[in-house]
């Protein structure tokens, strides 16, 4: 107490003023942080489309162990191997559906660039020719299954039964074929695909017949067809999907080239991007679990002793320790760059002086006024009255530093996985 009273009068006055102004606010903040968990870090946006890949418990456990050890090289290697294995063993499944008579089988032949008379072509005709799902392959799209489904009018089943029977939830991409009119069946199919979060296209076939019979100019006719499709979808709240206007008899003209380009890109997305998003999500969850465990350990006696005084030097040392634990310190990142051979060397570990930019709560708790105030509370003259508040203040800063380092790990790992997993043509 005597040492405190010997402070210069001006410094003592500043300390008392800070205590008066900030005491209640800081106490409420710390107590609130005790009862309310810190907000969860936001990861990269989840893809709108659902990836149906299910990974084994062994894969999840191996990724969890590598994250726990801070071994990002093992994480990258596992993810890369899993995606490459899936590419070679699991074909992309594309189904073609629509109302009977819309030209679905003819479209599959046109997409495969083969004539209707060839031996392995999809049978076509003025009557219903596809009574059950038929599988086709194309050299244009290696390791891709093209399924020609019965039209929605083949049976008397309701749309719900049709959707369930065709198992659209197991498909990677659905192509909805329409011609003559965009019916309620087409709209219901589109709504169902959006609800199931499936990739889907709308393809208007028989454009050659429309052009030959319409008094409108080609640009006007194309605009009218596109507008009609969009209006019907918008009435039911369906987001605008890729729409292509084609002629099954002219597979190299109209929107067919654009359709092929889009399909090629989406097949790559299905093989790589969607799989990577799922695996990255697994990594994110395990990083969150590790961060949670580290924050829980702050309550142990050993760590309480370690953070008994949280000056700048102590915080900086803790920051470096957490970076090394997650594998995002300078040394770990340099080793990772050398092992991969493809990581951009421009990335460096986050610096301590950048911490306050990453979280407003951390910026507040690292500010000079707040630091000074809690330093005052820590003096023995208070007879331990504020020890609980001071300890929570110290722990909260540590917890926020762990969250920031965890989020930095997620961001870095996602970039590293993309750089080391995607083929050059996909990037």
Automatic annotation (TrEMBL):
Pfam families of this UniProt entry?
IIGP
UniProt entry tagged with the keyword Transmembrane helix: yes
Specify the species: Mesocricetus auratus (Golden hamster)
Which molecular-function annotations from GO does this UniProt entry contain?
A: GTP binding; GTPase activity
Q: Which UniProt keywords apply?
A: GTP-binding, Hydrolase, Membrane, Nucleotide-binding, Transmembrane, Transmembrane helix
Keyword hit for Transmembrane helix: yes
List the InterPro entries: G_IRG_dom, Immunity-related_GTPase-like, IRG, P-loop_NTPase
Q: Which gene encodes it?
A: LOC101837226
User: What's any one GO cellular component for it?
Assistant: endoplasmic reticulum membrane
Q: Which family does it belong to?
A: Belongs to the TRAFAC class dynamin-like GTPase superfamily. IRG family.
Would you kindly state one Gene Ontology biological process term found in this protein's UniProt entry? autophagosome assembly
Please state what the protein is called: Immunity-related GTPase family M protein 1 isoform X3
Looking at the record, the residues that make up the IRG-type G domain are: 90-266
Tell me which domain of life the UniProt entry assigns to the organism this sequence originates from.
Eukaryota
Stretches that traverse the bilayer? 368-390
């Amino acid at each position: 107490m005597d040492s405190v009273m010997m402070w210069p009068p001006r410094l003592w006055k500043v300390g008392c003023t800070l205590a008066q102004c900030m005491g209640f606010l800081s106490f409420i903040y710390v107590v609130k942080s005790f009862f309310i968990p810190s907000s969860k870090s936001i990861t990269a946006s989840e893809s709108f489309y659902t990836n149906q890949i299910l990974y084994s418990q062994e894969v999840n456990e191996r990724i969890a162990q590598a994250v726990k050890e801070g071994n990002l090289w093992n994480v990258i290697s596992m993810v890369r191997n899993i995606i490459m294995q899936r590419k070679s063993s699991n074909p992309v499944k594309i189904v073609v559906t629509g109302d009977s008579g819309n030209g679905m089988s003819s479209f599959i032949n046109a997409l495969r660039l083969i004539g209707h008379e060839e031996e392995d072509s999809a049978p076509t005709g003025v009557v219903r020719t596809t009574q059950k799902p038929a599988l086709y392959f194309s050299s244009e799209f290696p390791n891709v299954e093209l399924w020609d489904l019965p039209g929605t009018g083949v049976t008397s089943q309701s749309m719900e039964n049709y959707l369930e029977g065709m198992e659209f939830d197991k498909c990677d991409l659905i192509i909805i074929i329409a011609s003559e009119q965009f019916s309620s069946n087409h709209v219901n199919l589109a709504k169902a695909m959006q609800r199931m979060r499936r990739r889907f296209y709308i393809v208007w076939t028989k454009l050659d017949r429309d052009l030959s019979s319409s008094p409108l100019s080609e640009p006007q006719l194309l605009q009218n067809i596109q507008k009609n499709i969009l209006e019907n979808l918008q009435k039911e709240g369906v987001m605008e999907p890729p729409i292509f206007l084609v002629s099954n008899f002219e597979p190299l003209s109209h929107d067919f080239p654009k359709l092929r380009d889009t399909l090629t890109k989406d097949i790559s997305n299905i093989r790589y991007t969607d799989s990577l998003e799922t695996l990255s999500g697994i990594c994110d969850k395990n990083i969150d679990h590790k961060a949670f465990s580290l924050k829980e350990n702050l309550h142990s006696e050993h760590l309480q002793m370690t953070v008994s005084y949280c000056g700048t030097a102590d915080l900086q040392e803790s920051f470096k320790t957490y970076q090394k634990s997650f594998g995002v310190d300078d040394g770990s990142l340099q080793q990772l760059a050398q092992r991969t051979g493809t990581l951009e060397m421009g990335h460096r570990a986050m610096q301590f002086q950048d911490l306050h930019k990453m979280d407003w709560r951390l910026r507040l708790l690292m500010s000079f006024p707040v630091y000074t105030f809690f330093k005052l509370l820590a003096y023995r003259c208070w007879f331990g009255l504020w020890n609980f508040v001071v300890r929570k203040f110290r722990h909260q800063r540590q917890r926020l530093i762990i969250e920031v380092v965890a989020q930095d790990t997620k961001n870095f790992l996602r970039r590293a996985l993309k750089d080391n997993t995607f083929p050059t043509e996909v990037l």
